[in-house]
Structure formats: structure tokens, C-alpha cells
Design brief:
There is one protein chain. The protein is an alpha/beta fold and 416 residues long. The protein has 11 helices and 15 strands. It has 2 domains: 8-52, no CATH class; 56-378, 4-Layer Sandwich (Nitrilase/N-carbamoyl-D-aminoacid amidohydrolase), CATH 3.60.110.10. Helix content is 28%, strand content 23%. α2 (31-38) packs antiparallel against α3 (41-52), α4 runs antiparallel to α5 and α5 packs parallel to α6 (170-182). The N and C termini lie far apart (67 Å). The structure holds N-(aminocarbonyl)-beta-alanine (URP). N-(aminocarbonyl)-beta-alanine binds at residues 145, 224, 229, 257-258, 281-283, 287-288. The site of N-(aminocarbonyl)-beta-alanine (URP) has 10 residues, from α8. One of its GO terms (biological process) is beta-alanine biosynthetic process via 3-ureidopropionate.
Length: 416
């Protein structure tokens, strides 16, 4: 059996294999490690062809990163992976290659620690990972949903609102320094306090330009009401539409977490011209893991853009147990946030995922020319028949809407 990277424990004891308290799958830190350790090379190659697709007819190449980034990864114990999506050479356009990074992380201190300490510790934890991205020449970097705090929206307790910040608040200022230092666009998903509108809260992604300027913000469009995701206690559906931000490195958009279950949300970012859509998330295994790789990949294919999916890692225990009206006994945690951040491309290829159980930085080069090449090849925009759907949606929104169902006349006929 092939040894993975010291994290996959293929020879773990039966006890270990049964408990998986570290959040691993049967002792492996990702599905990809599990498969590569257990399948014969030829079989693994075939499985990977289907599971990860091919880019320009080939398996994704890995990128060699600078030693300084690798040293940070081993000293600070975070997963570091890097790949390259190519596009076909064009005769009239130069390649438009950008280097993009995704960071996933667990919280740095227990949720019971004083809030200022929790914030300080998360800044201290993220700094070296952002430095590794900077040292690797990352142009655009996206952090996970509500990265500065525990994902406390399961609890319904209002005291967690104290983590909210204005768009130009402490965490933005922290990241602006890195943006300037590394000439990097940074997407920061925060709990926003909108001072000018009665200090209301939003779930917001702040887009920081490569000069450290704030380009704009986007507020989460779809707020979950599923399982322990009691986020509607804290903030309303966003009011910023589907903005695409034209940056020094390409046109980007942010579809925040639960928005990934809404194909029209993905579509609208595509219609506005996005070339990369980020999906900063916080979601747990029991609820969504089988959906995770499919939804992102499908969005990338259907909309001819790249998708960067990020999920937090670990289990966050809250001081007061809670319930969510689903009959489950009261419990103090959401369950395991399974990480597994990765990229998907418009040609149906995707990277393997980062670890399910540790912090990580996923880096990928992507030639944005691939977006138009896929539009030309498959013609999804051209064949979309938007007018049909506009009509259906317009009629669906009317109170007197009736579904277009044609019943088999024999269905309701009494048998003679
Ligand atoms: N953060 C968030 O919206 N989570 C909802 C659960 C899911 O979409 O998997």
C-alpha cells in the first residue's frame, strides 16, 4: 500500500478506524489519499480520470512551489497543494494565467476564550498561511466564510454578534497589509455590521484590491434554514445582487456558501461576466459532503468559469448546548467541518481536495482563456434559451400561477 503523506494512516488500528475523531475517512485525510493508497496505479489513474476529469486531455499538472512556502507549511502544519489548469494556445490572444489561492482553517482557540483573544489568535494563525500564498506568487486569495470567528450561528445566541465588523474594520485592515505587501487581491468573508443602516448585520464578502484598496462587497444572497444552520437569526438575505468585480487579475465574484445550492445564483454571476467564482463556505459532513464536489463542478461546467470552493475545518464546541427543532437531542457542536477545499474548471476538470482535517492552502494556476474556449466548444450560452426561462419565471411569480402539467387522460378514468 502506498504511504500517503504521513497524515493518511492506512495501517491505523481497528479502534482508530472506527472512531475517526480526527475527522478523517477511515484514517485518510481525503478521498484522494484513500484511493491512491488502495488502488493499483492503473486503476487509480482511471478512477481519477472520471473523478477529477482531464484538462486539455491530460491529468492536471502539479506546480513546484518555493521552499519558503513549503517550510511554512511544514512548520505551521498546514496542507499545501498546487496545480495548473492549462488552456489551448490561441493565435490572437496571449494566455491569461493567474495564480489563485484558497485558505481553509480551524478556529485557533476554544469558543470559550475571550473574544479579543480568539480574534488575535486567528490573525496569528492565518498570517503565515497568507505569507505562504504571497511567497508562492498568488494573485488572488480567498478565505473561508466568516473566517475571523467560530461559526456560532447554530447557537442562536446573540452574543456572537460582537464579532461583526464594518467593511473597513479590523480584519479588512489586517488583510489590506498583506494585499499591499504581496500585490494580491484578497476576498474576506466576514460578519458585517452596517453602521449606516442602523448597525444591522450581514454575511458579507469584502473584495480587497491588490493595492490594499476596498473594491467592493457582496452580501450572501441565500440564507440557510437547514439542520443547525440557524443563520436567519442573525442576518437577512443580501441586497447586493450578483456583482462581478473587475480586478487586476480577472473578473471575480463570490457565491457565499449556501448559495451554491441555487443554480440561478451561479448563473447570474456568469451572466455578469465572472471568470472565477469563489464559494467561501462553512458546512458539515453529515449534511452536505456528498453534494460538495458535485455542485461546484457542475457550476463551473454550466457557466464556463472557474470555481474555488473553500470549507472550514474541525469541530467547534460551544459552551451552551442547543437544539434546532429536528428532534435531535441537544448538542454543543455542528459536527465536523470537512475542509476539502478545491478548484473546478469549465472543462470539467478539478483539483484533488485539501485535507478533511487540517488547515490548508490550495494554489492553482489557471489560464482564464479556458472560459471562452469552453463557451465556443459547448455553446452553453448560445443554446441557453433564456427567454423560455424568463417567461416561466415571470409566470411562476404571479399569485395565480398554475404548473404546466398535462395529465394522461386515462389516469383519472374509472376502469369499466
Ligand atoms: N454556511 C452555510 O450557509 N451553510 C449551510 C449548509 C450548507 O449549505 O451546506
Amino acid at each position: 500500500m502506498e504511504k500517503t503523506d504521513g497524515i493518511g494512516k492506512e495501517n491505523g488500528s481497528t479502534e482508530e478506524k472506527q472512531s475517526f475523531k480526527d475527522g478523517s475517512i477511515c484514517g485518510y485525510n481525503s478521498l484522494h489519499h484513500l484511493l491512491s493508497a488502495n488502488l493499483k496505479p492503473q486503476l487509480h489513474q482511471e478512477v481519477s480520470r472520471l473523478l477529477l476529469g482531464l484538462n486539455c486531455g491530460k491529468t492536471l499538472e502539479t506546480i513546484v512551489l518555493p521552499e519558503s512556502a513549503k517550510a511554512l507549511s511544514s512548520n505551521r502544519d498546514f496542507d499545501l497543494q498546487a496545480f495548473k489548469f492549462s488552456a489551448d494556445k490561441e493565435l490572437l490572444r496571449e494566455p491569461r494565467v493567474v495564480r489563485v489561492g484558497l485558505i481553509q482553517n480551524s478556529i485557533a482557540l476554544p469558543t470559550t476564550a475571550p473574544f479579543p483573544d480568539q480574534k488575535k489568535a486567528i490573525f496569528e494563525k492565518l498570517g503565515p498561511i497568507i505569507d505562504a500564498a504571497g511567497a508562492s506568487g498568488v494573485n488572488i486569495l480567498c478565505l473561508q466564510e466568516a473566517w475571523i470567528m467560530p461559526f456560532a450561528f447554530c447557537t442562536r445566541e446573540k452574543r456572537w454578534c460582537e464579532f461583526a465588523e464594518p467593511v473597513n474594520g479590523e480584519s479588512t485592515q489586517f488583510l489590506q497589509e498583506f494585499a499591499r505587501k504581496y500585490n494580491m487581491v484578497i476576498i474576506s468573508s466576514i460578519l458585517e455590521r452596517d453602521i449606516n443602516h442602523g448597525e444591522t448585520l450581514w454575511n458579507t464578502a469584502v473584495i480587497i484590491g491588490n493595492h490594499g484598496n476596498i473594491i467592493g462587497k457582496h452580501r450572501k444572497n441565500h440564507i440557510p434554514r437547514v439542520g443547525d444552520f440557524n443563520e436567519s437569526t442573525y442576518y437577512m438575505e443580501g441586497n447586493t445582487g450578483h456583482p462581478v468585480f473587475e480586478t487586476a487579475y480577472g473578473k471575480i465574484a463570490v457565491n457565499i456558501c449556501y448559495g451554491r445550492h441555487h443554480p440561478l445564483n451561479w448563473l447570474a454571476f456568469g451572466l455578469n461576466g465572472a471568470e472565477i467564482v469563489f464559494n467561501p463556505s462553512a458546512t458539515v459532513g453529515e449534511l452536505s459532503e456528498p453534494m460538495w464536489p458535485i455542485e461546484a463542478r457542475n457550476a463551473a461546467i454550466a457557466n464556463s468559469y472557474f470555481v474555488g470552493s473553500i470549507n472550514r475545518v474541525g469541530t467547534e464546541i460551544f459552551p451552551n448546548p442547543f437544539t434546532s427543532g429536528d428532534g435531535k437531542p441537544q448538542h454543543p457542536d455542528f459536527g465536523h467541518f470537512y475542509g476539502s477545499s478545491h478548484f473546478s474548471a469549465p472543462d470539467a476538470s478539478c483539483t484533488p481536495s485539501l485535507s478533511r482535517c487540517k488547515d490548508g492552502l490550495m494554489i492553482s494556476d489557471m489560464d482564464l482563456n479556458l472560459c471562452r474556449q469552453l463557451k465556443d466548444k459547448w455553446g452553453f450560452r448560445m443554446t441557453a434559451r433564456y427567454e423560455l426561462y424568463a417567461d416561466t419565471l415571470a409566470s411562476y411569480l404571479k399569485p395565480d400561477f398554475e404548473p404546466q402539467v398535462i395529465s394522461d387522460p386515462l389516469l383519472h378514468k374509472k376502469s369499466s
